Automatic annotation (TrEMBL), chain A:
Any one Gene Ontology cellular component term annotated for this protein: plasma membrane
Location(s) in or outside the cell: Cell membrane
InterPro entries: MetI-like (IPR000515), MetI-like_sf (IPR035906)
SUPFAM superfamilies per record: MetI-like
Transmembrane segment boundaries: 21-39, 59-81, 93-117, 137-161, 198-219, 248-269, 290-312, 332-353, 374-399, 411-433, 470-492, 516-538
Sequence ranges assigned to domain ABC transmembrane type-1 in this UniProt record: 56-263, 332-534
Chief localization: membrane
GO biological process: transmembrane transport
Membrane-related topology note: Multi-pass membrane protein
Keywords: Cell membrane, Membrane, Transmembrane, Transmembrane helix, Transport
Matches recorded under CDD domains: TM_PBP2 (cd06261)
The protein's name in its UniProt record: ABC transmembrane type-1 domain-containing protein
Organism: Poseidonibacter parvus
Automatic annotation (TrEMBL), chain B:
Stated name of the protein: Thiamine-binding periplasmic protein
One function term, GO molecular function aspect: thiamine pyrophosphate binding
Organism name: Poseidonibacter parvus
Database matches in InterPro entries: SBP, ThiB, ThiB-like
Signal peptide span: 1-17
CDD domains cross-referenced by the UniProt entry: PBP2_TbpA (cd13545)
Keyword set, alphabetical order: Periplasm, Signal, Transport
BP GO terms, sorted: thiamine transport
Location within or outside the cell: Periplasm
Tree of life domain: Bacteria
Keyword Signal: yes
GO cellular component, one term: outer membrane-bounded periplasmic space
Amino acid sequence: MSKGLKDLKRFKSSTLLGGTLSLALLSFCFLIFYTLYTAQETNLFTSVDSKIYGLLKFTIFQAFLSTVLSLFVGLLLAWALAHQVKFKGRSILIALFSSSLVLPTLIVVFGIIGIFGRQGYINQISLYLFDTNFGTYLYGLGGILLAHVYLNASFALRSLLHSFEAIPKEKYKLAKSLNFSVLKCFYYVEYPALRPSLLSIASTIFLLCFTSFAVVLLLGGNPSYNTLEVAIYEAVKLDFDIQTALKLALIQLGISFVLVILSSSFKINTTNIKTNSLSSITKNSKTIQILQWFIISLFTLFFISPLIVIFIDGLSANFAKILSDKVFIQAFVTSIIIATLSAIITLIAAIFLSNTRRNFSLDTRLAKYPFSKVLNLFVAFSGNIYLAIPSLVLGLGFFMMYQKYDGSFTLWSSMALLTANVLMSLPFALAVITPAMQKIAKRYDRLSFSLNLSSLRRYKEVELPYLKSSLAYVFTLSFCFSLGDLGIIALFGSDEFITLPWYLYQLMGSYNTNDAAGVALILLVLVLFVFIFIPRIFRSKNA
Amino acid sequence: MKKLVYLLLLTTFFAYANEKPTLNVYTYDAFAASWGPAPKVKKAFEKTCNCNINFIGVSSSIATLRKIQLEGKKTKADVLLGLDTAVAQVAKDTKLFSTHDLDTSIIDLPNSYKDDTFVPFDYSYFAFVYDEEKTKKVPKSFEELASMPDDFKIVIQDPRSSTPGLGLLLWVKSVYGDKASDYWKRLAPHILTITKGWSEAYGLFLKGEANMALSYTTSSAYHMVEENKFNIKAAPFKEGHYAQIEVAAIVKSSKQKELGKKFLEFLYSKEFAQLIPTSNWAYPVIKDVKLHESFSKLHLPKEFILMDGKTVQEKRKAIINEWLEAVKK
């Protein structure tokens, strides 16, 4: 038997499973596009009117501003934290910033309203101290930017902190011996190390803000602050103007695709969602240190105060009433079921895809054969299609299919929600699992091939012990994402099919502030508990 | 064994025999709420029909229509209750509703409204309401409203989801015609926020977040009767007030059409008409109903304004777009 055939046989099952899945994902992507394209009647290209142009302009404008601001804040904070390594609570602080990745957008917005809103703490304190307040400034561009910075700056921080920490200490020593100022040191030593990840973080944040939904829906306040996503939602839910919705969805789809391709890296930069490494950097002067302390304290306050507000406001809610409410129980159960299912599916999909990818990228496997690179990219892209198909577009696609085919509304709704949740978590799941599986293969391939371990046995004996903590992390990540998502459910939510975020959104919409605060607290505690404690149970020493 | 099967069959038979037909009515949440008319209407109608009636509340009146459209042929709804004459035509164009062929000659409205699909069940006039104790200087016309100081805030509803929201647009359009857009630009700084439905806007107003909210001339009757409060008033506007006639119709895909018809007929019966003033806080659609004494204290507009449904349907999109452009900051 030739070596090539032997190789193919050996990796047949792992390549086929992931390959099939990846093909299925891409076909699904095409199916959505095809459904939307064939459902619309008007000619797409002749009918892009000034209204859509205005929408597009604002969507891009706010995404650009959000990206710049988030990067700036994230960079400042990463710089300060990288230079301040020895203080109590640093790791807790970083863990807290990490958890912002899974905080439900709705919760963040709720907390931000509590701090910055018309009746928020800042206005109340100012009213008490100076007998005047700032009035309504939150709703509109200001609020959108604030929430986007909150959500994305901590995301940027994690990646950038990692890049800072990867800078060899010798370089700092050299900078010091050359008597570099802080700015010079940043320019010559730190910036070159950050640059590669800076671009990919920026493009990811831009994409996330470009397709932002919940934030804009809640804080937009005025129709002029609509993004394409919200316009799609309004066209379906308020106007029932499916044609306009389709047109908007296709435009959104087109632009997202172009953006994803332009950003050229099909991966979300999450190499280090789990930050635990510590390395000390030489000390700066006293003034700079004070500045760093100021930055850390200011942004810590900015990040933590909305969460504290949720705790304080939530505690005064009538929990007996909330917990005995039939609708709440229904929403809770639905949310838990959907989150569990989507976490399991995400996990399986991520393992299949990562397994296939390492076949194409490792020399011990199939990397030396032609087309491996292309196939590798193909699989990578299929795991990241969520960036190209935003959730409302996905939702609209499902809705058109629901109209075309049979089945109950609830069934289609749960399918749409599950799909969206899985696709949403998949890029993050892959970012964690792919490198881990790669590492295991590099280390143990030769050994397990020589022992001729069967695939199942190999998984049990070799892979699982090393993957356990990553798998647990991905499970909780995906579980929490799903638990907090207000995207597709906004299109499909009804009195029969209701999730916790949708229930909270409705409570907020009816200005039922007390119950909303209680539900927000329950959701926050649930997400933080799952995110912080579940991975701890499965933490293994070797990974 | 045989006995067991018989027993089982028998119980199922009785279970089915006892099961009354259920009529699902989609309506806006203020109607379906426990403090709204729904519980009283349910009690009164179930006495006459040997059926169950199930009110399903949706965030706003137009959202009820959108829900039925979204659910398509698979909708549970038998009756839609709560659109007004301005959007009834929109609903008719969806072809999701069936004609009622009922004799509606007894219906008596300030203007004549006759329709083969929709049946009116109450009416009132849109008005901005205010709290006498909190707001001393009250605008008496659209002009005065626009020239109030900057911190004078109003809450209105989104015309795409709520009938009062659309009503205000039609009201302004009727008064200002071609200059409506210009007026909205002047009013925009006073708009605190635009809510999806009436309840949200009214809730914000009662909380003191805004000086006025778009509601009805009859809203203050609620506070007089239920809360014994006399400080919530409707501002009488010189230009006259836009009227809202609320209507209901049977959903075409319904399997309970006969029951639905019975329900529509019930909507203009004396029994229902007596419930309306002090539960939905509006005027009944038939004559000789004794109104609660509080109604004599309400502002009764001399001039009422109402565009006919066809005109509204033709111009609705343009009017909403004009508004959207004008209120953009």
